[in-house]
Amino acid sequence: MRNTGNPLAGRTLYIQQMTYASTHLLAAAFHSVGINAVVTEESDERTLELGGKFSSGEECLPEKITLGDYLKVVFSEGFDARRAAFLMPTANGPCRFGQYSGLLRKVLNDLGHHEALIFSPTSANGYDGFGANGNVFLRSAWRAVVVGDVLTKALLRTRPYELRKGDTDEVFLRSIRRMGDVFSEKVESAGSQLERLVRALSVCHDEFCSLPVDLSEPKPLVGVVGEIFCRLNDFSNDSIVRKLEEYGCETWLSDVAEWVWYTNDEARANMDADGILKIHPKRIKLWAKTTFQRHDEHALLSAFGDYFAGAEEASDVTEILNASRPYLPKEGSLGEMVLSSGKAVYLYLMGADGIVDISPFTCMNGIVTEAIYTKLSKDCDGIPIRTFYFDGISSDLDRDVGIFVELVKTYRRRKKIARVWPYRKETTAVA
Questions:
Q1: What confidence category does residue 247 fall into, taking pLDDT thresholds of 50, 70 and 90?
Q2: Using CA atoms in the order 93, 96, 102, 105, what is the torsion angle rounded to 10 degrees?
Q3: pLDDT digits (tens, 9 = 90+) for 344-392
Q4: On the chain, which terminus has fewer CB atoms closer than 10 Å, C or N?
């Protein structure tokens, strides 16, 4: 019998695979509170076919892919709208992302699937709308995001140096399964779950450390910023990270947690604008949430020790926002354009050799940041910055990446800010 207090009870919640690690761990977190969550299949040509068929052509690529992946579920054998739900977060601000949920609802209704549920947490409330088990789930979901980011960062930090092709991917996938097993367990207490996660993550760390790698010298480091879906979803960006690796680079990919910290900052700014006092319950709730999130992030990162030495993320999102201020101040700009410009400066200061901005074709965030990158690059010693736009149509990405990497190598020979390279100068396993 369906529990009417939980709109997801009795339904399968489908989650589109924006980023492999965090999405699979998020699904496991849903399982821990009794919700049957399933990650959609890998995106493919059928995704683009369905997304294109049921959209006008004016939508951005992430919307087309998300819609297409969910429609693959709808058109699968045995689909029952009464037992289906689709996760589709939303947001305010200058982005079509806020319209994804509305389009999906319209398409489902047009297909006669009025009873299918769309589950839409929003950035306006810090994605708090998770119902009865909200507090337990939200903390577990945040930990899933952090762990997914940690494992992805370990993957990208290690794979360019592996001696046996495929070893790092193998450890990465095994680590996700290991952490998924922990996340899927019922949460008896936040403390006990965190202890189990740190222990399991330490095992993942040891496996990454055991991989045979050549760390005799660092490879050119390319920072990857841009629209969150397109930069994190390999299908939407034609696996550009692997392309950069094939050309001999290491990448530093802006993660999911960065966006969560940004929405927290925006929630705080909105309270300031509304004149909400520091003692107001909303303020206290936001303070408590960010305090717990910071505590959990530090604890989980500690499992990897100094593995990311020289590639540490900013200690606070305000560091990124302040770096963006001369170009796109947060008071006059919103969303990924601010994060991308600020992160580009941060990556330059961390010794990166080039910056890639990955954006969907016609994305306003990408268009705005591309316009200011000339000035930003000039201020940052001429570091090469290249915006790559994607629309789901094949292009000569290999050629364009090759040209960009040549610029990266030239800049690397003359750059003024050296990268911290903590590894021993020998062929060894990561320590």
A1: very high
A2: -140
A3: 999 999 999 999 999 998 888 899 999 999 999 999 999 999 999 998 8
A4: N
Kindly state whether residue 232 falls inside one of the protein's structural domains: yes
CA atoms within 13 Å, Cβ hemisphere of 252:
25
Distance CA 127, CA 279 (A): 22
Query: Which pLDDT value is given to residue 210?
Result: 95
Q: How far apart are CA 147 and CA 198, in angstroms?
A: 10
Model confidence band, residue 396 (pLDDT cutoffs 50, 70, 90): confident
How far apart CA 253 and CA 245 sit, in angstroms, is 13
- pLDDT band, very low/low/confident/very high, at 124 (cuts 50, 70, 90): very low
Q: What is the pLDDT of residue 277?
A: 80
Q: What is the rounded CA–CA span in Å between residue 158 and residue 251?
A: 10
Q: Under DSSP, is residue 361 helix (H, G, I), strand (E, B) or coil?
A: coil
Which burial class, exposed, middle or buried, applies to 327 when counting CB atoms under 10 A from its CB (0-12, 13-18, 19+)? buried
Q: Which letter does DSSP use for residue 362 in this model?
A: T
Q: What is the CATH number of the domain that holds 352?
A: 3.40.50
**Structural domain of residue 357, as residue ranges?**
218-255+313-426
* Cα angle 199, 204, 206; round to 5: 95
Point out which residues pair with 85 in neighbouring strands.
Answer: 13, 117
What are the strands, taking DSSP E only, across 78-162?
A: 84-87, 117-119
Of the candidates 105, 132, 159, which is a domain's last residue? 132
Rounded (10°) angle between helices 134-158 and 190-209: 10
Do residues 69 and 104 make contact, with C-beta atoms less than 8 angstroms apart? Answer: no
What is the domain count for the chain?
2
- H helices of 303-335, in order, are 317-324
List CB contacts of 146: < 8 A, sequence separation 6 or more. 257, 296, 297, 300, 301
Helix or strand run (H / E) with residue 13:
strand 12-15
Asked if residue 280 is part of any domain, the answer here is no
pLDDT at 278 over 90: no
CA dihedral sign of residues 359, 365, 368, 374: negative
* Tokens matching residue 287: 């303070």
> pTM of the full predicted structure?
0.91
